[in-house]
């Protein structure tokens, strides 16, 4: 049962609004299938036309993409100051861009993953769907978390 008095008001975003929000940030969470189970990884991405690019190195993400190119990427943001939150989900297929590709040489310069060493594979997400929601928050929905040791450590 949904209580409309406390549930945030959701606005369905247009595809154009979703792309604008995706261009305003560069960090998302990539969902892939690993050994038949979902797994999620943070990635730094850039928009290229109506697709997304990110760099990765050898390992779980790349193996998962090689096994099953179906992926989803979610990006979001919350602004307590303005009482807004949004979430955009891109579902599609991941394509490896060959090392000899001109795109790799031009795009790689603008992508700076958190762990930049060894991220020599460029991946393009070709969307099938791009959907998003924007939520209006009010003060009753803010999270009041005590600054315990774990929270404090994340802020330091």
UniProtKB/TrEMBL annotation:
Xref: SUPFAM superfamilies: FMN-binding split barrel (SSF50475)
InterPro entries: Pyridox_Oxase-rel (IPR024747), Split_barrel_FMN-bd (IPR012349)
Source domain of life: Bacteria
Pfam families: Pyridox_ox_2 (PF12900)
Protein name: Flavin-nucleotide-binding protein
Organism: Arthrobacter alpinus
């Amino acid at each position: 049962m949904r209580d409309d008095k406390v549930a945030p008001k959701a606005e369905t975003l247009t595809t154009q609004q979703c792309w604008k929000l995706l261009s305003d940030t560069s960090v998302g969470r990539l969902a892939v299938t690993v050994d038949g189970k979902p797994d999620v990884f943070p990635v730094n991405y850039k928009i290229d036309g109506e697709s997304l690019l990110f760099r990765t190195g050898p390992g779980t993400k790349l193996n998962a993409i090689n096994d099953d190119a179906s992926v989803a990427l979610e990006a979001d943001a919350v602004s307590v100051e303005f009482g807004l939150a949004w979430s955009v989900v891109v579902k599609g297929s991941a394509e490896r861009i060959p090392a000899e590709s001109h795109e790799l040489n031009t795009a790689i310069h603008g992508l700076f993953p958190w762990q930049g060493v060894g991220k020599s594979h460029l991946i393009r997400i070709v969307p099938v769907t791009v959907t998003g929601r924007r939520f209006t928050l009010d003060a009753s929905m803010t999270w009041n978390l005590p600054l315990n040791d774990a929270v404090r450590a994340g802020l330091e």
